[in-house]
Amino acid sequence: MKRWLVIAAVLFSSAVQAQFVVPNANLMVDGLPPISTELAEKVSAFGNYPSASLAAWQPARGGMLIRARNRLAVQLFTVSQPGARPEPLTVFPDAVGAAALQPGSGEHIVFQKARDGDEVFQLFRMHLGTKEWAAISDAKERAGPPVWNRKGDRIVYASSSIDKHSADEEGDRAAETKLILVDPLKPATSKVLATFKARSFSSFQ
Question: From its phi and psi, is residue 129 left (phi > 0), alpha (psi between -120 and 50) or beta?
Fold first, then answer.
């Protein structure tokens, strides 16, 4: 009898969870009333509307790269000429963030992507011809937008620590951000140029 009661309780709990939106594990929710999945589905149409933004020009190949939403999330697309249909370049379940095209040959692109909505962005490189991709940055840190050098053989980006347990004199959590230089084709060449006590920064020229 107890066994059936336990099974019934588990099934009831699963049914209740299916009726409400379950926040991601990385979020701390306090005082927020339950949101039904029915309501979430109704309002999702207001956030999932067609839009596109320029990610990079492709002077060597012609055309440009854009960020636009597919059925799942914002991804990268190539547009070969004015009026042409955007062709998908990335197809991930998670949205693609900032992207930077390799100067010169334009063979590679470096882009940001988190996982499961955790907002811990990593940098990845992709060959535009083969569409093969690989991680560049440390998965245990949050990587900022990449910036190529003019020669097209290095990028620089900010990498922020995620685990912030200590507190500074003002009571705020201390954070460490590193300025990193790396050859995207050789992640092992990663070199820390400077370290700062700051949450993040990402503006480089």
Answer: alpha
